Amino acid sequence: MQVHRKKLRLSSALLVLALGATACGGGGDEPAGGDAAPEGEAGGEFSLYVTDPENPLIPSNTTESEGAQVLEPLFTGLAVYDTETSELEMEGVAESIESDDSKTWTVKLRDWKFHDGTDVTADSFVNAWNFAANSNNAQGASYFFANIEGYDALQAEEGQQVPAGTTLSGLKKVDDKTFTVTLTQPFRQYPVTLGYTAFNPLPDAFFGADGQPGTADDKAAQDAFGKKPIGNGPYQVEADFTPGTGVRLTRFEDYSGEAKGMADAVDIKVYTDVNTAYTDVQGGNLDIAPDIPPETIETAPDEFGERFRDRNSSSFTYLGFPTYDDRFADKKVRQAFSMAIDRKAITDSIFNGTFDPAYSVISPVVQGHREDACEFCEYKPDEAKALLAETDFDTSKPVDLWFNAGAGHDEWVQAVGNQLRDNLGVQFKLQGGLQFAEYLPKADEKGFTGPFRLGWGMDYPSPQNYLEPLYSTSALPPNGSNTAFYSNPEFDELVKQGNAAESDEEAIEIYQQAEDLLLEDLPVAPMFFGKEQWVFSEKVDNVNMDAFGHVRVSEVTVNQ
Protein backbone atom coordinates (compact mmCIF):
# COMPACT_ATOMS: atom_id res chain seq x y z
CA MET A 1 0.00 0.00 0.00
CA GLN A 2 1.66 3.23 -1.06
CA VAL A 3 1.53 5.89 1.58
CA HIS A 4 2.82 9.37 1.99
CA ARG A 5 5.68 8.51 4.27
CA LYS A 6 7.37 5.80 6.33
CA LYS A 7 5.76 3.30 8.62
CA LEU A 8 5.09 0.84 11.45
CA ARG A 9 5.27 -0.42 14.99
CA LEU A 10 7.14 1.68 17.51
CA SER A 11 8.16 1.43 21.11
CA SER A 12 6.06 3.69 23.31
CA ALA A 13 9.13 4.09 25.47
CA LEU A 14 10.72 6.05 22.64
CA LEU A 15 8.21 8.86 22.97
CA VAL A 16 8.66 8.93 26.73
CA LEU A 17 12.41 9.15 26.24
CA ALA A 18 12.09 11.94 23.71
CA LEU A 19 9.73 14.04 25.82
CA GLY A 20 11.45 13.39 29.10
CA ALA A 21 15.09 13.92 28.15
CA THR A 22 17.02 16.78 26.64
CA ALA A 23 19.95 14.85 25.23
CA CYS A 24 20.55 11.90 22.98
CA GLY A 25 24.12 10.79 22.73
CA GLY A 26 26.55 7.97 22.24
CA GLY A 27 30.11 7.84 23.45
CA GLY A 28 33.23 7.35 21.39
CA ASP A 29 34.08 7.91 17.77
CA GLU A 30 32.59 4.65 16.50
CA PRO A 31 28.88 3.82 16.14
CA ALA A 32 27.57 2.49 19.43
CA GLY A 33 25.60 -0.71 19.89
CA GLY A 34 24.12 -2.06 16.70
CA ASP A 35 21.82 -4.85 15.64
CA ALA A 36 23.45 -8.23 15.50
CA ALA A 37 24.66 -9.15 12.04
CA PRO A 38 22.05 -11.21 10.16
CA GLU A 39 22.66 -14.93 10.06
CA GLY A 40 23.83 -16.21 6.70
CA GLU A 41 26.69 -15.63 4.35
CA ALA A 42 27.45 -12.34 2.68
CA GLY A 43 27.29 -12.16 -1.10
CA GLY A 44 24.83 -12.81 -3.90
CA GLU A 45 22.10 -10.55 -5.21
CA PHE A 46 18.34 -10.26 -4.99
CA SER A 47 15.41 -8.24 -6.36
CA LEU A 48 12.85 -6.03 -4.63
CA TYR A 49 9.63 -4.53 -5.98
CA VAL A 50 8.49 -0.89 -5.78
CA THR A 51 6.21 1.27 -7.87
CA ASP A 52 7.59 4.40 -9.51
CA PRO A 53 8.53 7.10 -6.99
CA GLU A 54 6.67 10.37 -7.32
CA ASN A 55 9.75 12.58 -7.61
CA PRO A 56 13.47 12.42 -8.39
CA LEU A 57 15.45 10.75 -5.59
CA ILE A 58 16.36 13.78 -3.47
CA PRO A 59 15.83 13.10 0.26
CA SER A 60 14.00 16.34 1.03
CA ASN A 61 11.59 15.78 -1.86
CA THR A 62 10.89 12.10 -1.20
CA THR A 63 7.81 12.17 1.02
CA GLU A 64 6.16 8.95 -0.12
CA SER A 65 6.79 5.28 0.48
CA GLU A 66 8.17 4.19 -2.89
CA GLY A 67 10.97 6.72 -3.17
CA ALA A 68 11.70 6.27 0.53
CA GLN A 69 12.22 2.53 0.02
CA VAL A 70 14.78 3.26 -2.71
CA LEU A 71 16.59 5.77 -0.50
CA GLU A 72 16.54 3.54 2.61
CA PRO A 73 19.79 1.66 1.82
CA LEU A 74 21.43 4.66 0.10
CA PHE A 75 21.54 7.06 3.06
CA THR A 76 22.26 7.02 6.78
CA GLY A 77 20.93 9.91 8.83
CA LEU A 78 22.04 11.50 12.08
CA ALA A 79 20.32 8.74 14.04
CA VAL A 80 18.55 5.50 13.14
CA TYR A 81 15.60 3.49 14.42
CA ASP A 82 15.85 -0.11 15.58
CA THR A 83 14.29 -2.52 13.07
CA GLU A 84 12.13 -4.32 15.64
CA THR A 85 11.46 -1.83 18.43
CA SER A 86 11.73 1.50 16.58
CA GLU A 87 13.80 2.85 19.45
CA LEU A 88 16.07 5.73 18.53
CA GLU A 89 19.68 4.60 18.32
CA MET A 90 22.78 6.73 18.00
CA GLU A 91 24.26 4.55 15.28
CA GLY A 92 24.09 7.11 12.52
CA VAL A 93 26.33 10.01 11.61
CA ALA A 94 25.69 11.88 14.86
CA GLU A 95 27.91 11.08 17.82
CA SER A 96 25.60 13.16 20.01
CA ILE A 97 22.53 15.43 19.84
CA GLU A 98 22.29 17.53 22.99
CA SER A 99 20.45 20.50 24.45
CA ASP A 100 20.11 22.23 27.81
CA ASP A 101 16.84 23.97 26.98
CA SER A 102 15.19 21.83 24.25
CA LYS A 103 15.45 24.84 21.93
CA THR A 104 19.10 25.04 20.87
CA TRP A 105 20.56 21.67 19.94
CA THR A 106 24.23 20.87 19.37
CA VAL A 107 24.98 18.07 16.90
CA LYS A 108 28.42 16.45 16.84
CA LEU A 109 29.35 14.14 13.96
CA ARG A 110 31.40 10.98 13.55
CA ASP A 111 33.85 10.45 10.71
CA TRP A 112 31.76 9.35 7.71
CA LYS A 113 32.08 9.11 3.93
CA PHE A 114 29.79 9.68 0.96
CA HIS A 115 29.77 7.22 -1.92
CA ASP A 116 32.00 9.56 -3.94
CA GLY A 117 34.66 9.38 -1.23
CA THR A 118 34.12 12.89 0.14
CA ASP A 119 33.62 13.53 3.85
CA VAL A 120 30.26 13.99 5.52
CA THR A 121 30.69 17.27 7.39
CA ALA A 122 28.58 19.86 9.16
CA ASP A 123 28.23 21.61 5.78
CA SER A 124 26.67 18.43 4.37
CA PHE A 125 23.76 18.89 6.75
CA VAL A 126 23.63 22.70 6.92
CA ASN A 127 23.60 23.10 3.12
CA ALA A 128 21.08 20.26 2.66
CA TRP A 129 18.68 21.69 5.22
CA ASN A 130 18.92 25.22 3.83
CA PHE A 131 18.17 23.84 0.37
CA ALA A 132 15.18 21.89 1.67
CA ALA A 133 13.73 24.86 3.54
CA ASN A 134 13.96 27.34 0.66
CA SER A 135 10.57 27.66 -1.03
CA ASN A 136 12.27 28.34 -4.35
CA ASN A 137 13.33 24.69 -4.40
CA ALA A 138 9.76 23.40 -3.85
CA GLN A 139 10.80 20.46 -1.70
CA GLY A 140 7.92 18.33 -0.44
CA ALA A 141 9.51 17.94 3.00
CA SER A 142 10.25 21.64 3.44
CA TYR A 143 7.71 21.72 6.23
CA PHE A 144 9.98 19.63 8.49
CA PHE A 145 12.34 22.60 8.80
CA ALA A 146 9.59 25.08 9.71
CA ASN A 147 10.45 24.94 13.41
CA ILE A 148 14.00 26.19 12.82
CA GLU A 149 14.56 29.92 13.29
CA GLY A 150 14.64 31.81 10.00
CA TYR A 151 12.36 29.46 8.08
CA ASP A 152 9.85 32.22 7.28
CA ALA A 153 12.55 34.29 5.58
CA LEU A 154 13.11 31.40 3.17
CA GLN A 155 9.49 31.39 2.05
CA ALA A 156 8.73 33.64 -0.91
CA GLU A 157 5.72 35.82 -0.26
CA GLU A 158 2.82 35.80 -2.68
CA GLY A 159 3.78 37.55 -5.90
CA GLN A 160 7.51 37.35 -5.22
CA GLN A 161 9.88 35.26 -7.28
CA VAL A 162 12.42 34.51 -4.55
CA PRO A 163 12.37 34.56 -0.76
CA ALA A 164 14.11 37.25 1.25
CA GLY A 165 16.69 34.88 2.74
CA THR A 166 18.82 31.97 1.59
CA THR A 167 19.91 30.40 4.89
CA LEU A 168 18.18 29.41 8.10
CA SER A 169 19.33 31.81 10.80
CA GLY A 170 18.89 29.05 13.38
CA LEU A 171 21.32 26.73 11.62
CA LYS A 172 25.00 27.37 12.35
CA LYS A 173 28.19 25.52 11.50
CA VAL A 174 30.58 25.47 14.47
CA ASP A 175 33.33 23.42 12.84
CA ASP A 176 33.58 20.58 10.33
CA LYS A 177 32.17 18.09 12.85
CA THR A 178 29.71 20.30 14.77
CA PHE A 179 26.63 22.38 14.03
CA THR A 180 23.84 23.90 16.10
CA VAL A 181 20.11 24.09 15.48
CA THR A 182 18.03 26.77 17.19
CA LEU A 183 14.29 26.17 17.08
CA THR A 184 11.55 28.77 17.21
CA GLN A 185 10.29 27.18 20.41
CA PRO A 186 11.33 24.30 22.65
CA PHE A 187 10.66 20.88 21.13
CA ARG A 188 11.72 18.04 23.38
CA GLN A 189 10.97 15.43 20.74
CA TYR A 190 13.38 17.00 18.27
CA PRO A 191 16.06 14.25 18.32
CA VAL A 192 13.40 11.66 17.50
CA THR A 193 12.60 13.48 14.25
CA LEU A 194 16.16 13.46 12.94
CA GLY A 195 16.11 9.90 11.66
CA TYR A 196 13.62 10.97 8.99
CA THR A 197 14.72 10.97 5.34
CA ALA A 198 14.40 14.75 4.86
CA PHE A 199 17.24 15.37 7.33
CA ASN A 200 19.79 13.30 5.39
CA PRO A 201 23.07 14.94 4.35
CA LEU A 202 23.95 15.96 0.80
CA PRO A 203 27.45 15.92 -0.75
CA ASP A 204 29.07 18.91 -2.42
CA ALA A 205 28.36 17.32 -5.80
CA PHE A 206 24.65 17.99 -5.30
CA PHE A 207 25.38 21.71 -5.54
CA GLY A 208 27.35 21.64 -8.77
CA ALA A 209 30.96 21.75 -9.85
CA ASP A 210 32.11 24.11 -7.08
CA GLY A 211 30.01 22.45 -4.40
CA GLN A 212 28.55 25.80 -3.34
CA PRO A 213 24.79 26.30 -2.90
CA GLY A 214 23.14 29.03 -4.91
CA THR A 215 25.32 28.88 -8.02
CA ALA A 216 24.24 28.67 -11.65
CA ASP A 217 25.04 25.01 -12.18
CA ASP A 218 22.90 23.79 -9.25
CA LYS A 219 19.95 22.71 -11.37
CA ALA A 220 21.91 20.43 -13.68
CA ALA A 221 23.69 18.83 -10.73
CA GLN A 222 20.42 18.28 -8.88
CA ASP A 223 18.76 16.76 -11.93
CA ALA A 224 21.65 14.31 -12.24
CA PHE A 225 21.57 13.57 -8.52
CA GLY A 226 17.84 12.85 -8.61
CA LYS A 227 18.52 10.03 -11.06
CA LYS A 228 21.69 8.75 -9.44
CA PRO A 229 21.89 9.83 -5.78
CA ILE A 230 25.24 10.01 -4.02
CA GLY A 231 24.44 8.86 -0.52
CA ASN A 232 26.32 7.75 2.58
CA GLY A 233 24.52 4.47 3.23
CA PRO A 234 25.47 0.79 2.92
CA TYR A 235 24.51 0.62 -0.77
CA GLN A 236 25.27 2.85 -3.74
CA VAL A 237 23.56 3.39 -7.09
CA GLU A 238 25.22 1.65 -10.04
CA ALA A 239 23.44 3.65 -12.77
CA ASP A 240 20.56 6.10 -13.19
CA PHE A 241 17.14 5.18 -11.86
CA THR A 242 14.93 4.49 -14.88
CA PRO A 243 11.19 5.20 -14.44
CA GLY A 244 9.15 2.11 -15.23
CA THR A 245 12.21 -0.12 -14.83
CA GLY A 246 14.07 0.61 -11.61
CA VAL A 247 17.68 0.75 -10.47
CA ARG A 248 20.56 -1.53 -9.49
CA LEU A 249 22.38 -1.03 -6.19
CA THR A 250 25.76 -2.42 -5.18
CA ARG A 251 27.25 -2.77 -1.73
CA PHE A 252 29.36 0.23 -0.66
CA GLU A 253 32.49 -1.46 0.65
CA ASP A 254 33.73 1.66 2.46
CA TYR A 255 30.50 2.21 4.39
CA SER A 256 31.25 4.02 7.66
CA GLY A 257 28.51 2.42 9.75
CA GLU A 258 28.30 -0.95 11.43
CA ALA A 259 25.23 -2.32 9.63
CA LYS A 260 27.02 -3.10 6.38
CA GLY A 261 25.15 -4.65 3.48
CA MET A 262 25.00 -8.44 3.31
CA ALA A 263 24.21 -8.91 -0.39
CA ASP A 264 26.58 -7.86 -3.15
CA ALA A 265 23.83 -6.24 -5.23
CA VAL A 266 20.13 -5.42 -5.24
CA ASP A 267 17.88 -4.96 -8.26
CA ILE A 268 15.00 -2.64 -7.38
CA LYS A 269 12.31 -3.37 -9.95
CA VAL A 270 9.35 -1.14 -10.77
CA TYR A 271 5.93 -2.77 -11.11
CA THR A 272 2.70 -0.96 -11.89
CA ASP A 273 0.49 -3.65 -10.38
CA VAL A 274 0.82 -5.46 -7.05
CA ASN A 275 -0.77 -8.59 -8.49
CA THR A 276 1.95 -8.93 -11.12
CA ALA A 277 4.66 -8.53 -8.48
CA TYR A 278 3.04 -11.17 -6.29
CA THR A 279 2.78 -13.60 -9.21
CA ASP A 280 6.46 -13.02 -10.01
CA VAL A 281 7.46 -13.96 -6.46
CA GLN A 282 5.36 -17.11 -6.81
CA GLY A 283 7.19 -17.91 -10.05
CA GLY A 284 10.66 -17.11 -8.76
CA ASN A 285 11.10 -14.05 -10.99
CA LEU A 286 11.11 -11.60 -8.07
CA ASP A 287 12.56 -12.10 -4.60
CA ILE A 288 10.71 -9.64 -2.34
CA ALA A 289 7.24 -8.14 -2.57
CA PRO A 290 6.76 -5.60 0.27
CA ASP A 291 3.02 -5.48 -0.49
CA ILE A 292 0.59 -8.24 -1.45
CA PRO A 293 -2.88 -8.09 -3.02
CA PRO A 294 -5.69 -7.96 -0.42
CA GLU A 295 -7.35 -11.03 -1.93
CA THR A 296 -4.26 -13.17 -1.23
CA ILE A 297 -4.10 -12.47 2.50
CA GLU A 298 -5.99 -15.66 3.38
CA THR A 299 -3.94 -17.93 1.12
CA ALA A 300 -0.45 -16.42 1.35
CA PRO A 301 0.40 -17.82 4.83
CA ASP A 302 -0.26 -21.38 3.66
CA GLU A 303 1.42 -20.94 0.31
CA PHE A 304 4.59 -19.22 1.54
CA GLY A 305 4.83 -20.55 5.09
CA GLU A 306 7.68 -18.81 6.89
CA ARG A 307 8.27 -16.71 3.79
CA PHE A 308 5.06 -14.82 4.55
CA ARG A 309 5.50 -12.18 7.21
CA ASP A 310 3.33 -9.57 8.85
CA ARG A 311 3.57 -7.06 11.65
CA ASN A 312 1.60 -4.20 13.16
CA SER A 313 1.84 -1.07 11.12
CA SER A 314 1.77 2.64 11.75
CA SER A 315 -0.02 3.00 8.43
CA PHE A 316 -3.21 5.03 8.46
CA THR A 317 -5.63 5.04 5.54
CA TYR A 318 -8.06 7.91 5.24
CA LEU A 319 -10.63 9.37 2.89
CA GLY A 320 -9.70 13.00 2.39
CA PHE A 321 -12.23 15.67 1.56
CA PRO A 322 -11.42 18.49 -0.88
CA THR A 323 -12.37 21.32 1.47
CA TYR A 324 -11.62 23.72 -1.39
CA ASP A 325 -14.62 22.29 -3.29
CA ASP A 326 -17.92 24.01 -2.45
CA ARG A 327 -19.68 20.65 -2.16
CA PHE A 328 -17.43 19.66 0.76
CA ALA A 329 -16.83 23.04 2.40
CA ASP A 330 -19.54 22.41 5.03
CA LYS A 331 -18.27 20.16 7.81
CA LYS A 332 -21.77 18.68 8.19
CA VAL A 333 -21.41 17.16 4.72
CA ARG A 334 -18.10 15.61 5.71
CA GLN A 335 -19.54 14.34 8.98
CA ALA A 336 -22.52 12.79 7.18
CA PHE A 337 -20.31 11.02 4.67
CA SER A 338 -18.16 9.62 7.45
CA MET A 339 -21.12 8.28 9.47
CA ALA A 340 -22.51 6.59 6.34
CA ILE A 341 -19.44 4.33 6.03
CA ASP A 342 -19.36 0.97 7.82
CA ARG A 343 -15.64 0.58 8.39
CA LYS A 344 -15.87 -2.71 10.26
CA ALA A 345 -17.89 -4.36 7.50
CA ILE A 346 -15.23 -3.35 4.97
CA THR A 347 -12.29 -4.57 7.07
CA ASP A 348 -14.04 -7.87 7.79
CA SER A 349 -15.26 -8.66 4.29
CA ILE A 350 -12.49 -7.22 2.12
CA PHE A 351 -9.37 -7.25 4.27
CA ASN A 352 -10.17 -10.40 6.22
CA GLY A 353 -9.60 -8.58 9.49
CA THR A 354 -5.99 -7.64 8.67
CA PHE A 355 -6.91 -3.97 8.90
CA ASP A 356 -8.65 -2.42 11.89
CA PRO A 357 -11.38 0.21 11.58
CA ALA A 358 -10.04 3.66 12.44
CA TYR A 359 -11.94 5.81 14.90
CA SER A 360 -9.15 8.34 15.38
CA VAL A 361 -6.31 9.85 13.36
CA ILE A 362 -3.53 8.86 15.78
CA SER A 363 -2.29 5.30 15.24
CA PRO A 364 -2.77 2.66 17.96
CA VAL A 365 0.97 2.06 17.94
CA VAL A 366 1.62 5.62 19.14
CA GLN A 367 1.23 6.67 22.75
CA GLY A 368 -1.83 8.93 23.03
CA HIS A 369 -4.10 6.90 20.73
CA ARG A 370 -7.78 6.65 21.77
CA GLU A 371 -9.99 3.94 20.35
CA ASP A 372 -13.18 6.01 20.20
CA ALA A 373 -11.96 9.56 19.61
CA CYS A 374 -14.09 10.14 16.49
CA GLU A 375 -17.81 10.58 17.16
CA PHE A 376 -18.53 10.97 13.46
CA CYS A 377 -16.71 7.77 12.52
CA GLU A 378 -19.36 5.58 14.14
CA TYR A 379 -21.62 3.88 11.62
CA LYS A 380 -24.95 5.71 11.95
CA PRO A 381 -26.62 5.71 8.52
CA ASP A 382 -29.92 7.22 9.64
CA GLU A 383 -28.23 10.08 11.46
CA ALA A 384 -25.93 10.57 8.48
CA LYS A 385 -28.84 10.96 6.09
CA ALA A 386 -30.63 13.37 8.41
CA LEU A 387 -27.49 15.45 8.86
CA LEU A 388 -26.85 15.65 5.12
CA ALA A 389 -30.44 16.85 4.65
CA GLU A 390 -29.60 19.86 6.81
CA THR A 391 -27.07 21.02 4.21
CA ASP A 392 -27.30 22.32 0.64
CA PHE A 393 -25.57 19.23 -0.73
CA ASP A 394 -27.04 18.20 -4.11
CA THR A 395 -27.57 14.43 -3.92
CA SER A 396 -28.66 14.27 -7.56
CA LYS A 397 -25.13 15.01 -8.71
CA PRO A 398 -22.72 12.01 -8.59
CA VAL A 399 -19.65 12.14 -6.39
CA ASP A 400 -16.19 11.28 -7.69
CA LEU A 401 -14.26 8.83 -5.50
CA TRP A 402 -10.52 8.97 -6.13
CA PHE A 403 -7.85 6.32 -5.55
CA ASN A 404 -4.54 5.41 -7.17
CA ALA A 405 -4.34 2.54 -9.63
CA GLY A 406 -2.63 -0.81 -9.32
CA ALA A 407 -2.45 -1.03 -5.52
CA GLY A 408 -5.53 -3.06 -4.61
CA HIS A 409 -7.76 -0.16 -3.58
CA ASP A 410 -10.52 -0.78 -6.11
CA GLU A 411 -12.66 -3.11 -4.03
CA TRP A 412 -12.81 -1.18 -0.79
CA VAL A 413 -13.39 2.20 -2.49
CA GLN A 414 -16.20 0.54 -4.46
CA ALA A 415 -17.64 -0.63 -1.11
CA VAL A 416 -17.50 2.92 0.24
CA GLY A 417 -19.33 4.14 -2.85
CA ASN A 418 -22.02 1.49 -2.42
CA GLN A 419 -22.57 2.54 1.19
CA LEU A 420 -22.80 6.23 0.27
CA ARG A 421 -25.35 5.34 -2.40
CA ASP A 422 -27.42 3.10 -0.14
CA ASN A 423 -27.29 5.28 2.97
CA LEU A 424 -27.25 8.81 1.57
CA GLY A 425 -28.80 8.39 -1.87
CA VAL A 426 -25.60 9.69 -3.49
CA GLN A 427 -24.44 8.13 -6.75
CA PHE A 428 -20.71 7.87 -7.38
CA LYS A 429 -18.05 7.51 -10.05
CA LEU A 430 -14.79 5.70 -9.40
CA GLN A 431 -11.71 7.67 -10.44
CA GLY A 432 -8.90 5.15 -10.22
CA GLY A 433 -6.89 5.58 -13.39
CA LEU A 434 -3.81 7.38 -12.07
CA GLN A 435 -0.61 5.67 -11.00
CA PHE A 436 0.80 6.75 -7.64
CA ALA A 437 3.44 9.03 -9.18
CA GLU A 438 0.66 10.90 -11.02
CA TYR A 439 -1.83 10.73 -8.18
CA LEU A 440 0.10 12.67 -5.52
CA PRO A 441 0.75 15.75 -7.68
CA LYS A 442 -2.98 15.92 -8.38
CA ALA A 443 -3.58 16.03 -4.63
CA ASP A 444 -1.10 18.87 -4.20
CA GLU A 445 -2.68 20.83 -7.04
CA LYS A 446 -6.26 20.73 -5.68
CA GLY A 447 -7.11 18.37 -8.51
CA PHE A 448 -9.54 16.07 -6.72
CA THR A 449 -13.21 16.62 -7.43
CA GLY A 450 -14.46 14.45 -4.58
CA PRO A 451 -13.29 12.33 -1.64
CA PHE A 452 -9.85 10.80 -2.18
CA ARG A 453 -7.91 7.88 -0.74
CA LEU A 454 -4.57 8.54 0.83
CA GLY A 455 -2.41 6.88 3.42
CA TRP A 456 0.10 7.97 6.00
CA GLY A 457 2.81 6.28 8.00
CA MET A 458 4.89 7.81 10.70
CA ASP A 459 8.08 9.65 9.89
CA TYR A 460 9.00 9.40 13.54
CA PRO A 461 7.15 7.86 16.49
CA SER A 462 5.04 10.67 17.95
CA PRO A 463 1.34 11.66 17.96
CA GLN A 464 2.50 15.03 16.69
CA ASN A 465 3.53 13.33 13.45
CA TYR A 466 -0.08 12.29 12.83
CA LEU A 467 -1.36 15.84 13.31
CA GLU A 468 0.93 18.66 12.26
CA PRO A 469 2.27 17.37 8.90
CA LEU A 470 -1.21 16.47 7.65
CA TYR A 471 -3.49 19.24 8.90
CA SER A 472 -1.54 22.35 9.97
CA THR A 473 -1.62 25.53 7.92
CA SER A 474 2.16 25.43 7.54
CA ALA A 475 1.87 21.96 5.95
CA LEU A 476 -0.23 23.13 3.00
CA PRO A 477 1.27 21.98 -0.32
CA PRO A 478 3.92 22.31 -1.60
CA ASN A 479 5.51 22.56 1.86
CA GLY A 480 3.70 19.59 3.39
CA SER A 481 1.03 16.92 3.06
CA ASN A 482 -2.12 18.83 4.00
CA THR A 483 -3.87 17.79 0.79
CA ALA A 484 -7.34 18.38 2.26
CA PHE A 485 -6.25 22.05 2.40
CA TYR A 486 -7.59 22.36 5.94
CA SER A 487 -6.65 25.42 7.98
CA ASN A 488 -7.74 26.23 11.53
CA PRO A 489 -5.65 28.63 13.68
CA GLU A 490 -6.99 27.03 16.86
CA PHE A 491 -5.71 23.63 15.74
CA ASP A 492 -2.34 25.13 14.81
CA GLU A 493 -2.03 26.74 18.25
CA LEU A 494 -2.88 23.54 20.11
CA VAL A 495 -0.22 21.59 18.22
CA LYS A 496 2.27 24.35 18.96
CA GLN A 497 1.48 24.10 22.67
CA GLY A 498 1.85 20.33 22.57
CA ASN A 499 5.26 20.62 20.95
CA ALA A 500 6.48 22.89 23.76
CA ALA A 501 5.01 20.80 26.59
CA GLU A 502 7.13 20.16 29.67
CA SER A 503 6.15 16.51 30.07
CA ASP A 504 4.91 13.46 28.22
CA GLU A 505 1.53 13.60 29.94
CA GLU A 506 1.00 17.28 29.20
CA ALA A 507 1.98 16.87 25.54
CA ILE A 508 -0.41 13.96 25.01
CA GLU A 509 -3.28 15.83 26.64
CA ILE A 510 -2.79 18.84 24.37
CA TYR A 511 -2.32 16.72 21.24
CA GLN A 512 -5.60 14.98 22.05
CA GLN A 513 -7.34 18.37 22.30
CA ALA A 514 -6.03 19.16 18.83
CA GLU A 515 -7.28 15.78 17.60
CA ASP A 516 -10.72 16.44 19.09
CA LEU A 517 -10.97 19.70 17.17
CA LEU A 518 -9.80 18.00 14.01
CA LEU A 519 -12.36 15.20 14.34
CA GLU A 520 -15.11 17.78 14.72
CA ASP A 521 -14.04 19.64 11.56
CA LEU A 522 -13.27 16.31 9.83
CA PRO A 523 -11.17 17.34 6.82
CA VAL A 524 -10.50 13.61 6.45
CA ALA A 525 -12.56 10.57 7.40
CA PRO A 526 -10.34 8.03 9.20
CA MET A 527 -10.75 4.62 7.58
CA PHE A 528 -8.24 1.93 8.63
CA PHE A 529 -5.16 1.20 10.66
CA GLY A 530 -3.13 -1.48 8.98
CA LYS A 531 -0.53 -4.16 9.09
CA GLU A 532 2.32 -4.82 6.76
CA GLN A 533 2.31 -8.15 4.93
CA TRP A 534 5.14 -9.22 2.68
CA VAL A 535 6.38 -12.35 0.94
CA PHE A 536 9.71 -13.45 -0.42
CA SER A 537 11.27 -16.21 -2.48
CA GLU A 538 13.30 -19.22 -1.33
CA LYS A 539 16.40 -17.42 -2.56
CA VAL A 540 16.55 -14.94 0.31
CA ASP A 541 16.31 -14.82 4.09
CA ASN A 542 16.39 -12.24 6.91
CA VAL A 543 13.79 -10.20 5.04
CA ASN A 544 12.79 -7.73 7.74
CA MET A 545 10.51 -4.73 7.53
CA ASP A 546 10.89 -1.85 9.93
CA ALA A 547 8.25 0.28 11.61
CA PHE A 548 8.20 2.65 8.65
CA GLY A 549 7.25 0.06 6.06
CA HIS A 550 10.74 -0.28 4.58
CA VAL A 551 12.44 -3.53 3.82
CA ARG A 552 15.82 -3.29 5.56
CA VAL A 553 17.85 -3.98 2.46
CA SER A 554 21.21 -4.28 4.18
CA GLU A 555 19.94 -7.13 6.41
CA VAL A 556 18.73 -9.39 3.58
CA THR A 557 20.89 -12.45 2.96
CA VAL A 558 21.03 -14.53 -0.21
CA ASN A 559 20.97 -18.30 0.20
CA GLN A 560 24.12 -19.57 -1.46
UniProtKB/TrEMBL annotation:
UniProt key word Signal: yes
Top-level taxonomic group: Bacteria
Claim: Nucleotide-binding is one of the keywords in the record: no
UniProt-listed InterPro entries: Peptide/Ni-bd, SBP_5, SBP_5_dom
Domain Solute-binding protein family residue range list: 92-474
Organism expressing this protein natively: uncultured Frankineae bacterium
GO molecular-function terms, A-Z: peptide transmembrane transporter activity
A Pfam family assignment: SBP_bac_5
Keywords: Signal
GO biological process: peptide transport
Signal peptide: 1-23
CDD domains from the UniProt entry: PBP2_NikA_DppA_OppA_like (cd00995)
One GO cellular component term noted in the UniProt record for this chain: periplasmic space
Protein name: Oligopeptide ABC transporter, periplasmic oligopeptide-binding protein OppA
